[in-house]
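Private note to self, pasted from the team thread so I don't lose it. Backbone tokens:
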């Protein structure tokens, strides 16, 4: 199946109600998935100001504006999620 519109696609199992998934479709290639310790990294982001969003199990939990400058090596943004 081709996902050609951005957004969240919910996938459900017709037999097992506890089996489901989310597919996030973006119009860009800049995203990250946390590791087991909750850390993430998004590489190759060009300079500019962006909205960084923490998304957990179907809900935006937090968002903030970040700026990447031409001389930025690392931009850190922590999201305390529970």
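Design output:
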């Amino acid at each position: 199946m081709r996902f050609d519109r951005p957004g969240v696609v919910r996938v459900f199992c017709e037999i097992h109600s506890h089996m489901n998934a989310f597919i996030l479709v973006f119009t860009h290639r800049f995203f990250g998935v946390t590791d087991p310790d909750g850390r993430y990294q998004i590489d190759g982001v060009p300079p500019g100001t962006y909205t960084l969003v923490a998304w957990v199990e179907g809900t935006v939990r937090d968002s903030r504006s970040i700026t990447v400058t031409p001389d930025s090596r690392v931009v850190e943004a922590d999201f305390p999620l529970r």
